[in-house]
């Protein structure tokens, strides 16, 4: 079977989701860390002068000074490149050409070295791009501090290249991981390399191939000492919005950059699924044709929904195959994923943040992948009868648009909740308005909408939730009736809308002062003596003997560490625990005694 066939959706190639950056050749290994690298011809290492704080000051003491000065001059003459990039997949090539266009000299390297020659002879022909056939040669061509971008497959490939690079670098040199690395890996690498004196940066890169070529969104984080040395390059090549503000700024320490990129990708999952649910309602409830749906999305792109994803959706709906028929209905309805949306959902669970919409978007893709099962289920499982829509078509189309907008607000509100919690967990100082600006252009989720988020955080940098901002509060209230009508109509028609419905459920839950979780706490206390907290007595945790059976609790009892265990109603077995439920895990002996009083 042959390889994939690529179709051009428009005259200008559209940016696609960021691909994994991986070369086809197997990895090779160089000398292990700590062994000296071979010197380039005519050059020698520039060594630190004894007692000097600068790693770049040549030693001039003793009879060797003239020779070393000459060697330094040779090395300086060879060092022409401002930055190096490893990984010549399409993203890497386009980033190199982007940097070249902005006046930076780039040295290109690929572990399949023939790709370097091919790139220089074709895409980079006539540019100032340099090539290297070995990591040693690449290092010798770099100005100091050396700056090296890795655009290789996330995971072991990044660690392998770091291991090979470290022996070739000096204190203060910089390694930048521009792939879709997991943020905990970035935290580990940042700490490990700091011990070796190497500055590590983990940078999210969004915008696909076109973004890399003409202006991506860049989200750098890691060792902040590196930022002054890469800022001009990063902000120079980044997308620009408004009055020329770059879609790039320093995000935060250690894994902050890749965490922000991960949340960006999760929001991207949510945006795409929301658009799919709107499309589903148009197609199966309103029975709209492709041209009609494309026109609707084009009109929506002139409203608050103005965005890259809405724009390309209109283009996709209009696109016709070689046979003159629309291509979209021919595409298998099984969505793939590379894992970053899943990472976002897992992080939300880990940190206890209800990022429900992104989670549902991930699960929707999982469900779509069960194509064969769904074919069988469609023959056996029944739903509502297909009844033609009898309402006002134009009015319901507006309901769908408002439902999409309101749900989108919820998705971003949840995403920023996760960013805020991560900042608390790791001690990051995140500029939320700045993050919104980074996403305002150059990336897959770029939209006018993000400017409103920046405005909200500019008004109130300590904003706890976007829904509490006056603009977004009013926007959701304005959409609320349409939102509910769109969902109820879809439910009655048997249309799956996991993201529309979870967005509304989150909104209703968030605005409720009193939720039924009190019953959950009572149930937990009933079967497991997990205790509960009374509204009238915050901070006091209580257990009740709900069955009335078992031993009567003593009126007073002391825990092993001397905390008071006070019974308030010994006849029913109710008593206070003046500490958090975490204490139960710390005092198993006491908890065992507690259960003796609870269980007959």
Structure characterization notes:
The chain has 600 residues and is α/β, with parallel strands linked by helices. Helix content is 47%, strand content 9%. The chain has 22 helices and 15 strands. It has helices spanning 65-78, 90-101, 114-121, 135-140, 156-165, 183-195, 208-214, 227-237, 256-284, 290-300, 308-318, 340-350, 356-368, 371-380, 393-426, 432-438, 449-459, 470-492, 498-511, 517-528, 582-586, 588-598, and strands at 83-86, 106-109, 130-131, 147-150, 174-177, 199-206, 217-222, 240-241, 245-246, 252-253, 532-533, 541-543, 556-558, 564-569, 574-577. The strands form 3 sheets. It has an 8-stranded mixed beta sheet, sandwiched between helices. A 5-stranded antiparallel beta sheet has the order 11-12-15-14-13. A hairpin with a 4-residue loop joins β14 and β15. The chain is globular, with a radius of gyration of 29 Å. The termini are far apart. 40% of the residues are buried.
Topology overview:
Layout: H1 65-78, E1 83-86, H2 90-101, E2 106-109, H3 114-121, E3 130-131, H4 135-140, E4 147-150, H5 156-165, E5 174-177, H6 183-195, E6 199-206, H7 208-214, E7 217-222, H8 227-237, E8 240-241, E9 245-246, E10 252-253, H9 256-284, H10 290-300, H11 308-318, H12 340-350, H13 356-368, H14 371-380, H15 393-426, H16 432-438, H17 449-459, H18 470-492, H19 498-511, H20 517-528, E11 532-533, E12 541-543, E13 556-558, E14 564-569, E15 574-577, H21 582-586, H22 588-598
Parallel strand pairs: 1-2, 1-4, 2-3, 4-5, 5-6, 7-10
Antiparallel strand pairs: 6-7, 8-9, 11-12, 12-15, 13-14, 14-15
Helix pairs in contact: 2-7, 9-12, 9-13, 9-15, 10-11, 12-13, 13-19, 15-18, 15-19, 16-17
